[in-house]
Amino acid sequence: MIEVPEQELHLGDLEADETYRVAVLPSPTTSETNTIDDDPQPEQASQTPPVEEGEQRTVEIEDIGDQGDGITRVERGFVVIVPDTKQSERVTIEITDVRENVAFAEVVDRVSYYE
C-alpha cells in the first residue's frame, strides 16, 4: 500500500479511496545522474553493432534458430545468424548484413577443431 500525497488528490488526477495500479521504477541518485550526464559516449558505444559488413571471423555455431539457421554470438552477446551450418560447427564467416540488434553472415570456410 502506498500513501499518495494530499497535493496529488487536489490536482484531480487521483480520487480518495480509489484503487490504482502503479509501477515503482528506480531512479538515479544525484551523483549517478552527474556521472551519466558527464559522459554519454559509453551508452552510444554499447548500441553500435560490434561487427561490420565484409568483416571475417572464425566462430562456433552455438544454436540453431527456428528457421534452421545457425546462431552465434560475438561481443556483448550480439547475435549473428549463419545459414547452412550445424550446432557446434566451427566456421569462418563473412558478415553480409548488419542491423541494429542482429547481423547475417555467410560461411567462407569450415574450420577443423584441430586448427
TrEMBL record:
Q: Which InterPro entries match?
A: NA-bd_OB-fold, TRAM_dom
The record's section on Gene3D superfamilies has: Nucleic acid-binding proteins (2.40.50.140)
- Every copy of the TRAM domain together lies at 50-109
Enumerate the SUPFAM superfamilies for this protein.
Nucleic acid-binding proteins (SSF50249)
- Chain positions covered by the region annotation Disordered: 25-68
Mind telling me which Pfam families this protein's record contains? TRAM
Q: Which domain of life is it from?
A: Archaea
What this protein is called in its record is TRAM domain-containing protein
Q: Which organism is it from?
A: Halorubrum distributum JCM 9100
